[in-house]
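Two proteins, back to back. First:
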Amino acid sequence: MKQPIASLPGGWGPSQDAASQNNWAIRVGSAIGRKNIIQAGNWNDSPPRWGAAQLIRSGNDTAKQYVRHYAHHNYPGGSIQSLQTHSNTVQNVRNQFEADVASVLAVGKEYVLGETNSG
């Protein structure tokens, strides 16, 4: 069976990802009859190109009612020394995710780093 992603003209990108997530949230949430249960997010590209702010803008009120929190992945990479330096960690998170977190808090949701590693 041909996978839906493979059959998209032009491949997979932010607009396809948003449409898929919105559809999935609506279908799963309505099927089980519960709201505020989905972890929505993106890990195909980093904010600000594609993150929670863009996903929130692309969503609709029906999809958003099923989202509990928005997430992203973070793989800062580097040496053991740089990964253990507090100021490097603060700078990495602040520079990359601060606007994303603000956009999520503005809609009354939580923001999580859904997966992290040293890359």
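And the second protein:
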Amino acid sequence: MRTPIVAGNWKMYKTIAEATALVREMRRELNETEGVEKVLCPPFTALSAVAELLRASKIRLGAQDMHWEDQGAFTGAISPLMLKELCQYVIIGHSERRQYFGETDEGVNRKAKTALKHGLVPIICVGENLAQNEANQTEAVITGQVRAALRDLTSEQVKGLVIAYEPIWAIGTGKAATAAGANAVIGLVIRGTVASLFGESVAQAVRIQYGGSVSPDNIAEFMAQPDIDGALVGGASLAAAKFVAITRKAAEIKGTHK
């Protein structure tokens, strides 16, 4: 059974003081929620402070991006060597990185390889935009992104990483995909692509989240789907009560220790 994973992507929100206050508000309840992996992804400036608060907990820490080089003259970039001291996870290829910062499929692949080399678990994001969705290009777009992201990885590496399906038209819009629709993309397209590349056993082992306007009100619908293994939560992860509710519902429906 795949262990469900719920990750909170705080994006460009929360000062260090605000981040530590938010963690303190939800740390106990998250820590007590069993059967689901919990990951918090604050901005880079708050990673160290949040890492200290999570040190004795069962809550994992993730970064929102990283460079593919270990070090070098890359002003403003963050190295995997800097992250591995603090984090267990790193988000790679989020649609906002692709849209606003020129992230490419090749760059996603390079970052995934580097993250794995340094023992960081990549959460690799894929998703189609509204025009692609309406033009019935979802399958082609997602297949291409998955194939590019996983290029030259081994079966063992793929088994251990996480893929997040985030339809771009549903991120921050309040308009989530239907649970059945998301499950179809995750099961048939993403798992199907992984199976074609690495075999069915790898496809059944890899964890795939849904992301895009996830809330306490709709999380149960997504978690009831057989191929959805958790959620990458945006706005709702900035409110302690909402993120705790999402995590608890994921554990209740999908938890491995029910």
